[in-house]
Amino acid sequence: RYAGTAPEPRPGLRGGHMPGAASLPFGELRRDGGTMRPAHELRTAFEAAAEGRERLYFSCGSGVTACVLALGATLAGYDDLAVYDGSWSEWGLPGDRPVVTGDARVQNGG
Questions:
Q1: Can you give the residue ranges of every domain in the chain?
Q2: pLDDT for position 105
Q3: What residues in the chain have per-residue pLDDT under 70?
Q4: Is 1-110 assigned to CATH 3.40.250.10?
Q5: Whole-model pTM?
Q6: Which of 65, 52, 45 is nearest to 106 (CA)?
Q7: How many Å apart are CA 57 and CA 91, to the nearest integer?
């Protein structure tokens, strides 16, 4: 759905993502068994997605899994974080908020 090519399952929401966004699925932060990966592995994942940014903003479909990403970033040593609790459920509504399609910034197959 990040790229805007898969159908959006929630009626009324546009497909795509916010400008400047990167996709890092929260499942990439977990080991088999569901525990978080070690801090150095988390840092590597976030560095690839963040492209040098130290302030990170997290969103997802509804704001819930964005919190898991923020936790992972905290464990990885980031401390300048924000969670957009409206996430795609708000941003993707019809209106004048910009939406980007394509997958140029997808990390780890997200």
A1: 1-110
A2: 53
A3: 103-110
A4: yes
A5: 0.83
A6: 45
A7: 14
Structure confidence at residue 16 (pLDDT): 87
Whole-angstrom Cα distance, residue 20 to residue 29?
Answer: 21
How far apart (Å, rounded) are the C-alpha atoms in residues 57 and 13? 21
The residue type of 37 is R
- Per-residue confidence (pLDDT) for residue 27, from 0 to 100: 92
Q: Which residues are catalytic?
A: 60
How far, in Å, are 11, 32, 33, 38, 40 from residue 60 at the CA level?
16, 22, 23, 23, 23
In DSSP terms, 106 is beta-bridged to: 23
Name, in order, each residue with C-beta under 8 angstroms of 109's C-beta and a sequence gap of 6 or more. 25
Residue 81 to residues 32, 35, 38, 59, 84, Cα–Cα distance (Å)? 26, 22, 19, 11, 10
Which tokens hold the place of 64?
């819930």
pLDDT score for 108 = 42
pLDDT computed for residue 44 by the predictor? 95
